[in-house]
Write a structure and sequence with these properties.
The chain has 114 residues and is mainly β. It contains no helices and 7 strands. Helix content is 0%, strand content 37%.
């Protein structure tokens, strides 16, 4: 009696779908650093010899925008660049300290991206 033959099943191709990378979640608004624009008066000096009659007693008007780093009763500090690592305090570049009594106007800005 002949043996029954087994039909070989073709091997199934295992297909793996590439999962799309998840979009990074935006930080909650409370964790994002604040962006601010400050209009303030600064102390100033002139270089070289000046005619006394042409001198002005007006302070310089300055507009500064940046990331709010620190703020207390007397001063606030902003920076133009901030690098944060997950397990350490962020590093900031060239922080600018402004005395609050010199501030004329302050405006909070929106982040240009989510």
């Amino acid at each position: 009696m002949p043996r029954p033959t087994r039909e070989k099943h073709p091997k199934k191709k295992i297909t793996t779908k590439k999962r799309p990378r998840p979009k990074p979640r935006p930080k909650p608004k409370s964790m994002r650093p604040k962006l601010v624009c400050i209009e303030w008066e600064d102390h100033c000096t002139r270089t070289g010899w000046q005619d006394q009659e042409s001198l002005t007693d007006k302070p310089m008007l300055v507009h500064s925008a940046g990331i709010l780093v620190k703020e207390n009763r007397k001063t606030l500090q902003i920076t133009h660049a901030r690098v944060g690592f997950s397990n350490a305090a962020p590093d900031v570049d060239c922080p600018l300290t402004i005395i609050k009594s010199c501030i004329l106007r302050r405006r909070n800005l929106r982040w240009p991206f989510a």
